[in-house]
Write a structure and sequence with these properties.
4-stranded antiparallel beta sheet
């Protein structure tokens, strides 16, 4: 290599090297940032009985309740008793005349950090799960939606990184998490995700 050509090669190679470094930095959080504890979430952030999706009004018959010991159970939503306003009228008013689609309860998922995937939890599996009564995992992580302040992650895709489900460490987003609720829609909707809690790993089936 001739010495007079060195500036030319530097000019060509420097941008390529910068792209490779940024790519490596954006990939590293996905590889190394993960909790030792899985977390439970549902597709309904507010645990409401009525949720609008497209032209339909989803009517849930039950909701999830977490007891003091961390166990989860399905409970019936309150519907007007006989003698009060007709339950059908209550539903029609709540749905504003949109077509009603009845479902038992919001879908429930466990996010597994070992496989970086979610698995759906059925009602008969609820007895195998216990939730830790803490917002921050024992190893110091939180899960949050729509992280809105500027951060290092902003250089890996701009403002789109401020919307979604994030793993938080020491107050900073270290990784975006792809959940069933964030990937099943063409865009992320904050109302489609509800963090329920960290799973007690000592309980079977978790």
């Amino acid at each position: 290599m001739k010495k007079e050509n060195i500036p030319f090669y530097v000019a060509i190679g420097a941008p390529i090297l910068l792209v490779l470094v940024i790519g490596a930095l954006s990939y590293m959080p996905k590889v190394f940032s993960k909790s030792d504890y899985n977390f439970l979430y549902s597709e309904n952030s507010a645990n409401n009985q009525y949720i609008f999706r497209g032209n339909d009004c989803i009517v849930y018959e039950k909701y999830y309740q977490i007891s003091a010991d961390g166990s989860i159970a399905l409970r019936d939503f309150y519907i007007a008793d006989s003698g009060e306003e007709d339950p059908e009228l209550v539903r029609m008013k709540a749905c504003s005349g949109q077509p009603m689609v009845f479902r038992t309860a919001p879908d429930l998922f466990v996010f597994d950090f070992q496989t970086n995937t979610s698995r759906k939890i059925s009602a008969d599996q609820l007895s195998d799960i216990k939730i830790l009564d803490i917002n921050t995992s024992p190893d110091g992580y939180r899960v949050s939606t729509r992280y809105s302040s500027g951060s290092l992650l902003d250089i890996f895709g701009g403002s789109d990184n401020r919307s979604g489900v994030f793993l938080i460490k020491n107050g900073n987003p270290v990784r975006r998490i792809e959940t069933e609720t964030s990937t099943s829609q063409s865009y992320y909707n904050e109302n489609d995700f509800r963090f329920i809690g960290w799973v007690d790993q000592n309980i079977k089936g978790n």
